[in-house]
Each structure stands twice: as C-alpha cells, then as structure tokens.
Amino acid sequence: MLNNFMSNNLLIDPPLTNNKFTWSNIRNPLMFSRIDRFLYNTSWEDSFKPHTTKTTSDHFPLICEDSTLSWGPAPFRLNKIVLNDLEFKRNMERWWTDSNQSGHPGFSFIQKLKSLANFIKPWQNEKLHSLKSTKEDLIKEVDSIDKKEIDSFLTQEESNRRLSLKNDLNEDGSAQNTNNNISSTFNKLAPSLYPFKEEEIKDVINSFEGKKAPGPDGFPLAFFKTFWPLLKMDIMEIFKDFFEKGVINKNINNTYIALIAKKKDYYLPKDFRPISFTTSIYKIIAKSLANRLKQFLIETISGNQLAFVKNRQITDAILMANEALDYWKVKKTKGFILKLDIEKAFDKLN
C-alpha cells in the first residue's frame, strides 16, 4: 500500500547511510524497525541528509534541510543552562554593577541589559563551546554503542553506560478646588495608597514558568527568577516610575512578531496568527496589573460574559440556551437561535 502510494505520487524513500533502522525498543529482547521516513520528489534529493544519533529518544532523528536563506546575525539569547553555573553567578554581580546606566528607569534598565549582554556573550560562547564538545563526545559514544547494539554485540555494561550517557545529555491641609490641583494631588496620593511591593513583584516573577522564548532583550524570565536579589532595586524603580506616570517606556515595549500558521494550507496574511515576543520586564508589569485587575473583573464585566471570568463557566450559556428552548416550547412561542463565530471578535466588538 505504501509502495503504491509512493509510486502514484512519484515519491522517493531515501536510503539511510548510517544504519537501516530508525527505532529500537531499548530493552531486551531487542527489536528494531524503520518506522520513520522522509518521502520527497526528485527536486529534493540533493537536500537529504542521513539521520542523526538518537540520544534521549527511542527514535533516531531525521533531518531534512532545504533552505539557504541567510537571516543575518542572530540576536543575543541567554541560554538558561548557564543560570545554574557557579562561575556565572559569581560574575553576575560584577557585570551588573559595571553595566550601570543613567536616565529614565525603563530606558536605563534596558540599556543595562544590553551592556550586560556584552559581558555575558563571550563568556557564554566559550562555556557553550566546551559543553558542545563534551556533548559531541557523548553522542559519538552513544552512536558507537547503538551500532554495536544493532550488530547484537551490546553487553550489559555498555547498555548501562548508554543510559548514563543519555542522562548526561538531558537538560523573578486646604481642599483642592481646581482640576489641575485635584489631578496633581491624586497622582501624588495614589502611589502611596497602593504601591507595588517587592514581595508582590517577586511572587509574580516566580509564577512564570520561565522556559518560554525571550523577547528583544534576550533574557528569559528564568534569569529574573535566579537573580531577583541583584535586579530587584532596578525593577522596583521601573514599577515606581510606571505607577506614577502611567506610561511604559518604549524601550520596555519593544516586541518581536512571529507568524504562526492557523491552518495546514496557508497562502494569505489572514491565514497566519501573529504572536508577540515581548521583553521579560514587560511581562512582569503586565501580569502584576492583571493580578490586581482580576480581583474586580466579576464586578465590572457584564453577567452575559460567562467565559474567562473567575467563578463563571461557559457551560452556563448552554444551560440558558436549553432553558430558552424549553420556554418557547411550553409557551408555544416562535423564536430563533443565532450562533455567531466572528473573525477577530476581540478587535471588532466592544
């Protein structure tokens, strides 16, 4: 059946150069199979590369590359693996102090991160190069053992060593009576009534998973979790400035946009869903505000809105629809039900 499909569609199943299997059960009795395949036409033939070494999976990864497009130099990204490095933690305090900047809190914080990135980048590259060399050596050893396994020469000691290698590869006065005076007084008073506190911001940072891709700053939330004691003074200055002025500095609001296909066949811009990669400090501010606002949502959002509000359930809408149908039946009243699925509803409806 597979052969007929390939023949009818002029597809090629390329041979593998390293070995003929792509899966093993990794237990006794050993079983091997080729259950993963690339099927392509002749125009792809020069792009095919053999499968790579299986490390933590029971499948051998298959890689097919067909792009020569140059995206230019990659932006800085802090690799989360260095956050647990003792040498990195020792250097961070010195690097952060040496990265000191002046000016608006939001601007100076982003500039400090850029300066910090210049300190981290060469150190990180050297560290990751060393780790890469170690990983490559481990992969070679795993590959060698895999080949022995296929030839049925795997000893128990080698099997234990392979599992050990695969573990090694795994991986924050008088009354005011003018508009201007009233506004000025309120702006001065409000921050003292409900200021952002260190513990509040720390809890917000710790509530993030920390593994998601960073934005233009290059620093994931795991970095802010790890170095909260070092960064907290600068972060609290940003919150103080934002609370008093009500404006986020544009340097904090920088964003990368990525397009995610909404369906299998995509040709037009509307077939994609844009997602934004924002700076970590923006995420911290946004979630801090959201945590405060959600305490009042149930009082301010209409009772007709049943989804995405705490203590309300969208299933209540189903119950109300059933009640309406039953009412019409009992009263023998005419009526109709209209179900709308509005494109970009959040952009178009108030």
Automatic annotation (TrEMBL):
<feature type="domain" description="Reverse transcriptase">
    <location>
        <begin position="241"/>
        <end position="350"/>
    </location>
</feature>
<dbReference type="InterPro" id="IPR036691">
    <property type="entry name" value="Endo/exonu/phosph_ase_sf"/>
</dbReference>
<dbReference type="InterPro" id="IPR043502">
    <property type="entry name" value="DNA/RNA_pol_sf"/>
</dbReference>
<dbReference type="InterPro" id="IPR000477">
    <property type="entry name" value="RT_dom"/>
</dbReference>
<dbReference type="Pfam" id="PF00078">
    <property type="entry name" value="RVT_1"/>
</dbReference>
<protein>
    <submittedName>
        <fullName>LINE-1 retrotransposable element ORF2 protein</fullName>
    </submittedName>
</protein>
